[in-house]
């Protein structure tokens, strides 16, 4: 009996010993977004061990989730892995067998110029195949695990030792990269962050905070009544309308609107008609009816940016469109169940919008006839009911570090980043944040800001690094340290891939030299980035 007990305890000891010898990865990446994949490929190429921890089953983020109409700003400043991705997209479409639903010479898109080395528009499944090729080539492990959101980070002396998953799994690493759109790892680690819009006064900006005077784009004309019963304020407001927008230029925690980038097709053999959702709420579309009945000329109620093979990347367009304005405020800090409900509500709203435009009797027949031609592609998102699983998280948490990117960095009117790890070039762009009643008693949208005309600008390494007092082995290339309006320019998928790669280069340096991410020698980092094809200044852009 004693012998059996001894064997038993020896067996238990051996199990414990094995668990204590769990692999410690050089780099742990949270989030299989485009930034996460970019960081993982760079890490693997650098000869380091890497793992991607993905909180859902979707790989590639928005790039594989329907956003095929690449927001660029300036193609010449897209370098490194990011440009390699778009070059591989072009190689994919150079193959005749990948033009199933139309001839390649029939496809015209002004983002693509003859003779370029890259292609900037694509189908979701094409992007997935390109990313999968990288993942398979470098044998990058991806585990579908969700971080425990209340205490899922084990820290010691300001350093993340491991992260805890809901399944009970602990994943150990030397350096961690939060590549998620939500910034969950950053937040659980205890790193400072902010939500919504800063007041203009905080960083001497002019485009931040409440912006009722800027809203000439995607705006309702005068005459659209906001009340449940027209002309009767006592009847209450229609859904998702606020009585008071807040004080001009003053900050709030409201979030710019989300939507799904819809992939639709008008090829009958590849088309699935959109049915009326089970949870359809007609009152959600009353503003659409009133907008049309107000006498506005017909226009598209969402964009039809054409992708190859007669598919679209359909984005918000106009005062009432795919953006579900005001319905995402609880998303950034929400738990998984709350976020799941918000995602479902957005899907229900957009499917309902598509059905309404194609079928509702209050929609004029010429409009109904146009929208009936479009449906979901049979050959996209086949594991998710042909609907994209990726909600467009335009903005969630944003880190607050010792270095904050502001609109002044974008315009370079008074300051320019000194430690460039990549370039931004897109318009400072915020979608609408809320609907409200103006002083005339009409409904208006608020929050849309679109200001461009500036040259490409550098994004500073210090903006992806937390304060040293908060964490010394974490990099945040997506929810980086910036104001709402600066983030509105930075938040583009090509830039996220650039920042993901640069974060990985810095992470590998930190591993090799056994130093904090804040102590990276920028000159060494700069030289490595240039060797890897990153564009750090306008002067070394692609010609």
Outline the secondary-structure elements:
Layout: H1 2-20, E1 24-30, H2 34-45, E2 50-54, H3 80-93, H4 124-137, E3 142-144, E4 153-156, E5 159-164, E6 170-178, H5 184-189, E7 193-194, E8 227-229, E9 232-237, E10 271-272, H6 286-293, E11 305-307, E12 311-313, H7 336-359, H8 365-371, E13 376-377, E14 398-399, H9 407-411, E15 420-424, E16 428-430, E17 434-437, E18 443-446, E19 449-451, E20 457-460, E21 474-475, H10 484-490, H11 493-513, H12 522-531
Parallel strand pairs: 1-2, 1-6, 2-3, 6-21
Antiparallel strand pairs: 4-5, 5-6, 7-14, 8-9, 10-13, 11-12, 15-20, 16-19, 17-18
Helix pairs in contact: 2-11, 3-4, 3-11, 7-8
Structure commentary:
With 543 residues, the chain is of the alpha+beta class. The protein is 27% helix and 15% strand. The chain has twelve helices and 21 strands. The chain has helices spanning 2-20, 34-45, 80-93, 124-137, 184-189, 286-293, 336-359, 365-371, 407-411, 484-490, 493-513, 522-531, and strands at residues 24-30, 50-54, 142-144, 153-156, 159-164, 170-178, 193-194, 227-229, 232-237, 271-272, 305-307, 311-313, 376-377, 398-399, 420-424, 428-430, 434-437, 443-446, 449-451, 457-460, 474-475. Strands 1, 2, 3, 4, 5, 6 and 21 form a seven-stranded mixed sheet that branches. A hairpin with a 2-residue loop joins strand 8 and strand 9. Helix 3 (80-93) crosses helix 4 (124-137) and helix 7 packs across helix 8 (365-371). The N and C termini lie far apart (79 Å). The model is unreliable at 1-20 (pLDDT under 50).
């Amino acid at each position: 009996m004693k012998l059996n007990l001894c064997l038993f305890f020896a067996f238990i000891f051996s199990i414990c010993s094995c668990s204590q010898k769990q692999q410690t990865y050089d780099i742990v990446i949270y989030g299989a977004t485009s930034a996460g994949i970019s960081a993982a490929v760079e890490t693997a190429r650098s000869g380091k061990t890497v793992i991607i921890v993905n909180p859902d089953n979707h790989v590639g983020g928005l790039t594989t989730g329907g956003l095929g109409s690449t927001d660029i700003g300036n193609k010449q400043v897209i370098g490194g892995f990011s440009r390699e991705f778009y070059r591989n997209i072009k190689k994919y479409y150079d193959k005749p067998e990948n033009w199933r639903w139309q001839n390649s010479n029939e496809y015209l898109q002004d983002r693509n110029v003859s003779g370029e080395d890259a292609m900037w528009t694509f189908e979701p499944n094409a992007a997935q195949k390109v990313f999968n090729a990288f993942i398979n080539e470098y044998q990058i492990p991806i585990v579908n695990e969700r971080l425990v959101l209340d205490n899922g980070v084990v820290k010691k002396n300001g350093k993340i030792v491991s992260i805890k998953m809901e399944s009970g799994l602990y994943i150990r690493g030397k350096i961690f990269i939060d590549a998620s759109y939500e910034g969950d790892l950053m937040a659980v680690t205890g790193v400072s962050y902010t939500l919504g819009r800063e007041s203009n006064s905080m960083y001497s900006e002019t485009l931040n905070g409440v912006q009722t005077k800027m809203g000439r784009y995607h705006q309702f004309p005068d005459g659209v009544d906001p009340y449940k019963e027209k002309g009767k304020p006592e009847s209450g407001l229609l859904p998702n309308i606020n009585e008071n927008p807040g004080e001009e230029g003053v900050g709030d925690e409201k979030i710019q609107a989300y939507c799904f980038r819809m992939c639709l097709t008008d090829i009958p053999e590849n088309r699935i008609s959109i049915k009326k959702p089970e949870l359809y709420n007609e009152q959600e579309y009353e503003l659409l009816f009133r907008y049309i009945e107000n006498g506005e000329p017909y226009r598209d109620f969402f964009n039809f940016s054409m992708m190859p093979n007669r598919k679209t990347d359909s984005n918000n367009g106009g005062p009432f469109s795919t953006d579900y304005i005001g319905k995402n405020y609880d998303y950034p800090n929400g738990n998984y169940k709350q976020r799941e409900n918000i995602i479902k509500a957005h899907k229900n709203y957009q499917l309902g919008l598509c059905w309404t435009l194609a079928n509702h009797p209050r929609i004029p027949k010429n409009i109904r006839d146009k929208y009936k031609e479009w449906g979901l592609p049979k050959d996209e998102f086949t594991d998710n009911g042909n609907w994209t699983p990726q909600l467009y998280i335009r903005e969630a948490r944003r880190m607050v570090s010792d270095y904050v990117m502001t609109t002044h960095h974008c315009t370079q009117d008074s300051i320019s980043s000194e430690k460039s790890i990549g370039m931004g070039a897109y318009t400072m762009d915020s979608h609408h944040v809320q609907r409200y009643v103006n002083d005339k008693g009409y409904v208006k949208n608020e929050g849309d800001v679109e200001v461009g005309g500036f040259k490409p600008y550098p994004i500073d390494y210090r903006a992806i690094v937390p304060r040293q007092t908060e964490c010394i082995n974490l990099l945040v290339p997506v929810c980086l340290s910036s104001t709402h309006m600066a983030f509105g320019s930075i938040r583009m998928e090509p830039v996220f891939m650039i920042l993901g790669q640069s974060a990985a280069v810095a992470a590998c340096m930190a591993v090799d030299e056994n130093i904090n991410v804040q102590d990276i020698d920028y000159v060494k980092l700069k030289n490595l980035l240039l060797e890897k094809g990153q564009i750090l200044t306008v002067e070394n852009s692609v010609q």
